[in-house]
Amino acid sequence: MFDALTGRLDGIFRKLRSRGKLHPKQIDAALEEMRTALLEADVALEVVEDFLGRVRTRALSEEVMRSLTPAQQVVKVVRDELQATLGGTQVPFQLPSARPAVVMMAGVQGSGKTTACAKLAVHLRSKGRRPLLVAADLWRPAAVEQLRTLGAEIGVEVVSEGRDAVKVVKHALKHASREGHDVVIIDTAGRLHVDEEMMREARRVRDAAKPHHVLMACDAMTGQDAVVQARAFMREVDTTGFILTKLDGDARGGAALSITAVTGRPVFFVGTGERPQDLEPFYPDRMASRILGMGDVLTLIDKAQEVVDAERAAESAGVTAGAWSKRSRRSASAGYAARQRWTASPTPAAATSSSSTASWRRV
Ligand SMILES: Nc1nc2c(ncn2[C@@H]2O[C@H](COP(=O)(O)OP(=O)(O)OP(=O)(O)O)[C@@H](O)[C@H]2O)c(=O)[nH]1
Ligand SMILES: [Mg+2]
């Protein structure tokens, strides 16, 4: 993923490095090439303009121009500003101590919501939580069954009682309290942001669930349209953050580089495959280094540790999801390093909900 963008940026930097002293004209020429590369990667125009403006101001500063290695300094400026565009610092995904904490998943059709619900359940369980999955997509005939199948695979209970999404949610919240689930993850129907009726339903589900997080599953391959969709969901359901899905595909970079910059909401996680364990936190700094072809060793170290943590949590919870943990272990091994996946991490928890007084914990 992002190969084309990484290649283009590398070429631009190489050209800059081939010169000793830099002239402002050369910086402007490099910025112009960067502009083309970013637009070709489908990054939103407003994001590109803003990013290049910041890079230009810093790159033309005396500090950079008079440096003994101006080209290196420019690369550093680009790296820093790329990180800022991606959200700046990593902020953990947090849930309140409220029982149960509620997470609602929203997004357009096929963006990876249902899969992301299962992935989040696996992730939260590895952190010692006891999740309940709620199938509240009653529009697509096979949607409930899809979540039930995933739930069975990962060993997490799935409920879907009621004839409309609001009833399903209300029942699920009662069930969670009764059965001691401390986090409820609600899968909702995919909807086009322009579909008024569907958006109304999303709002009704949100109002009934009073979620602490409304996560939007956003397909990394979407490009420019991701910005329009993200803005619409922000407006309608007050998204608290994103799960950027399908980063293992041939994403050009557009959605990843644009959504936080235009919404101010963080990407909490990235989806890196179809399996329930293919979820990683999002780190803006690592993503920036990765886009610039600087590698991502830390991600691999983190992933290995996560597998150890998950196994420990599963053991202490008496979970015998043998198939799952075996696969997790395998994915942490050599083949994993070869694939060099993304890691990322969370950002601030702009809760939409009720528990302003409850304490929030990283999960
Ligand atoms: N490669 C890859 N595929 C993914 C990822 N996340 C989801 N998918 C696949 O994308 C397809 C759609 O995923 P779903 O989770 O069903 O998407 P959805 O948003 O729930 O779809 P609707 O409910 O129909 O709106 C499935 O084939 C998933 O296996 C990912 O991170 N990587
Ligand atoms: Mg679905």
Give structural notes.
By secondary structure, this protein is of the alpha/beta class. It has 15 helices and ten strands. It has an eight-stranded mixed beta sheet with strand order 4-3-5-2-6-7-8-9, sandwiched between helices. Strands 1-10 form a two-stranded antiparallel ribbon. It has two domains: 3-85, SRP54, nucleotide-binding domain (Four Helix Bundle (Hemerythrin (Met), subunit A), Up-down Bundle); 94-362, P-loop containing nucleotide triphosphate hydrolases (Rossmann fold, 3-Layer(aba) Sandwich). 52% of the residues lie in helices and 13% in strands. Strand 7, helix 11 and strand 8 form a beta-alpha-beta unit. It binds guanosine-5'-triphosphate and magnesium ion. The site of guanosine-5'-triphosphate has 22 residues, from helix 6.
Write the layout of secondary structure elements.
Layout: H1 3-17, H2 24-40, H3 45-59, H4 62-65, H5 70-85, E1 94-96, E2 101-106, H6 113-126, E3 131-136, H7 143-154, E4 158-159, H8 165-179, E5 183-188, H9 196-209, E6 213-219, H10 225-237, E7 241-245, H11 254-263, E8 267-271, E9 279-281, H12 284-291, H13 297-316, H14 322-331, H15 334-339, E10 360-362
Parallel strand pairs: 2-5, 2-6, 3-4, 3-5, 6-7, 7-8
Antiparallel strand pairs: 1-10, 8-9
Helix pairs in contact: 1-2, 2-3, 3-5, 5-12, 6-7, 8-9, 10-11
This protein binds guanosine-5'-triphosphate and magnesium ion.
Magnesium ion binds at residues 113-114, 137, 143, 187, 190.
SS-based structural class? Answer: alpha/beta
Instruction: Tell me the total number of β-strands.
Output: 10
Bound molecules: guanosine-5'-triphosphate, magnesium ion
Rg to the nearest angstrom? 21 Å
Examine the coordinates and then state which fold CATH places here, giving the name of the CATH topology of the largest domain.
Answer: Rossmann fold
Which sequence of SSEs, written as H and E, runs from N to C?
Answer: HHHHHEEHEHEHEHEHEHEEHHHHE
Count of individual helical segments: 15
Q: Tell me the name of the CATH class of the largest domain.
A: Alpha Beta
How are the strands of the biggest sheet laid out side by side? 4-3-5-2-6-7-8-9
